């Protein structure tokens, strides 16, 4: 964007959804290299340093655009936050609506917590970590199916919640492995 384009940009354009901002389809499956390239290109256009000699209003708007591009990039680059965002675009708050988490996964959580508490060796912890990683990979595939192939937003939100638990549990597991 030129300084004239920044200065004359429609302020509501900052509110467009992340996929539109990056000119990408609203899909779970994204090519990370393509996303990274689009982020670099957008940052090159709106970086505040490009507007150092422009007026204060153009500099402020460039800063807002740069922040917006970075915020969208952070959301889109991670498959779980991307999925939560897609759910939100379809009216489901995957981060807070706990009623969407499958009962079977609630049981799995309890089993994993008990296994973590009972683990007395590095080998036991590593087996548990492997099991959790396998389940995470399966959930990511299931999530892509619920979003891209057979849209089912409540099921997708349930997968997001399960993946959020797995991320927290994996951190606890890593801390035990490090100890």
Automatic annotation (TrEMBL):
Pfam families named among the record's database cross-references: HSCB_C
Keyword Amino-acid biosynthesis: no
Superkingdom of origin organism: Bacteria
InterPro entries per UniProt: DnaJ_domain, HscB, HscB_C_sf, HscB_oligo_C, J_dom_sf
Stored SMART domains: DnaJ
J domain: residues covered: 17-89
Assigned keywords, A-Z: Chaperone
NCBIfam families per UniProt: hscB (TIGR00714)
Record function comment: Co-chaperone involved in the maturation of iron-sulfur cluster-containing proteins. Seems to help targeting proteins to be folded toward HscA.
Subunit-level organization: Interacts with HscA and stimulates its ATPase activity.
Family indicated by similarity: Belongs to the HscB family.
Cross-referenced HAMAP family: HscB
The protein, known as: Co-chaperone protein HscB homolog
Source species: Pelomonas nitida
């Amino acid at each position: 964007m030129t300084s004239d384009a920044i200065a004359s940009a429609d302020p509501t354009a900052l509110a467009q959804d992340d996929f539109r901002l990056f000119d990408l389809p609203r899909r779970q499956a994204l090519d990370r290299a393509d996303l990274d390239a689009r982020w670099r290109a957008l940052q090159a256009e709106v970086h505040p340093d490009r507007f150092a000699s422009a007026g204060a209003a153009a500099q402020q708007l460039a800063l807002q655009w740069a922040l917006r591009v970075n915020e969208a990039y952070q959301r889109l680059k991670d498959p779980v936050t991307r999925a939560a965002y897609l759910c939100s675009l379809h009216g489901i708050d995957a981060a807070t609506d706990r009623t969407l988490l499958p009962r079977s996964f609630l049981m799995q959580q309890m089993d994993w917590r008990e296994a973590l508490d009972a683990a007395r060796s590095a080998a036991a912890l590593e087996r548990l970590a492997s099991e959790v990683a396998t389940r995470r990979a399966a959930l990511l595939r299931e999530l892509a199916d619920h979003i891209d192939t057979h849209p089912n937003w409540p099921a997708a939100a349930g997968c997001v919640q399960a993946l959020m638990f797995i991320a927290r549990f994996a951190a606890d597991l890593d801390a035990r492995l490090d100890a």
